[in-house]
Amino acid sequence: MLTIAVTILLGGLAIGWIVSEDARTRRRRAQILKTPFPKAWRSILKKRLPYFKALPTDLQLQLKKHIQIFIHEKRFIGCNGFEIDDDVRVTIAAQACLLLLNRETDYYPKLKDILVYPNAFIVKQPQADANGVVWDHRRILAGESWGQGKVILSWTHTLVDAAEPYDGNNVVIHEFAHQLDQEGGQANGAPLLSSITDYPSWSKVLGEEFAALQHCAAHGLPSIFSYYGATNPAEFFAVISEVFFERPEIFYQQHPALYTELSHFYRLDPVSWH
C-alpha cells in the first residue's frame, strides 16, 4: 500500500511540475512579446529577406513575434571561428519561423542549439563495406538536422537562399521541415498532423508523388522538385516544403493534390501572397 501511495504521490508531483512548467513558459513568452520588435531587426528583415514584404500584414506581425521567442529560446553557436550576431540570428529565425505561421506551435521543442558554419561543412559518417570493414564517409553539407536537438547550417548558403526566395531552394526551410518531421520521432516524411483523419490522404498523396519523383530521378525526367527528394520520404517532405514556400504557383499548377496536403498541414496558401 505504501509503494502504491508513493507512486501516486510521485505521479501527481510529476504532473504538477509539467503543468507548472507549461504555465511558466506561457508567462515567459508573453513577457517577451511585451517588448517591441527591435528597429535593428526590422532593418535586417528588409535587407536579408525579400519575401517578407510579400507576406500579408497579419503574417508579418505573427512572424516577428515568433522571431522574438525563437531567438530568446534557442542558442546560436558559431563554428570554425564564425561569430554570431543579430544579423545571423534574425536571418535564420525568420526563415525557420515561416514554417510555424498560423499553426499551434511550441517552437521546435526538441531543438536547443543552432550551429552555424561560415561555409559548407564536412560531416564524417561511419560506413561498412561488403566485407564489414568500417570507414569514415565524408560528406560536404550546407545543412543538417539532428533529432538530438541541433540544426547545423552554412551561413553562406543561408544568405544565398534567403536572397533568392523564388528558386525553390532554401536550406533553412529544408532543415526545419526535418525538425517538424522529427517532433514525432525519427524523420520519416510523416510529421505530426492536426488530426488522425488526415493521415490516410497524406499517406496516399505523398506516397504517389514520392514514387513519381523517384521515377523522374531514375529516368532523368524534369521535375520542379530536386532529385534529392527521391532519396527517402523524409527528404521528400523537406524538398517539397522548400518548393511550397518558394515556388507555390507552379507547385499548385503541376501538383494540386500535393499542394493541398501541404497547405492543410502548414495552414498557409503561399499562392495568395504573390
Give descriptors for this structure.
single chain, 274 residues, alpha/beta, Cyclin A, domain 1, Collagenase (Catalytic Domain), 2 domains, 4-stranded mixed beta sheet, two-stranded antiparallel sheet, 10 helices, 53% helix, 12% strand, globular, MetalloPept_cat_dom_sf, Zinc-dependent peptidase, aminopeptidase activity
SSE topology:
Layout: H1 2-33, H2 39-48, H3 57-73, E1 75-78, H4 86-97, E2 113-117, E3 121-128, E4 134-141, E5 143-146, E6 150-154, H5 155-163, H6 171-182, H7 199-219, H8 233-246, H9 248-254, H10 256-266
Parallel strand pairs: 1-2, 2-6
Antiparallel strand pairs: 3-4, 5-6
Helix pairs in contact: 2-4, 3-4, 4-5, 6-8, 9-10
The CATH superfamily name of the largest domain is Glucose-regulated metallo-peptidase M90, N-terminal domain
The total count of strands amounts to 6
Strand content: 5-15%
Tally the structural domains.
2
CATH topology of the largest domain: Cyclin A, domain 1
**Helical run tally:** 10
Q: What would your notes on this structure say?
A:
The protein is an alpha/beta fold. The chain has two domains: 29-181, Glucose-regulated metallo-peptidase M90, N-terminal domain (Cyclin A, domain 1), CATH 1.10.472.150; 188-274, Collagenase (Catalytic Domain), CATH 3.40.390. It is 53% helix and 12% strand. The protein is built from ten helices and six strands; from the N terminus they run αααβαβββββαααααα. It has helices at 2-33, 39-48, 57-73, 86-97, 155-163, 171-182, 199-219, 233-246, 248-254, 256-266, and strands at residues 75-78, 113-117, 121-128, 134-141, 143-146, 150-154. β3 (121-128) and β4 form a beta hairpin. The longest helix has 32 residues, at 2-33. One of its GO terms (cellular component) is cytosol.
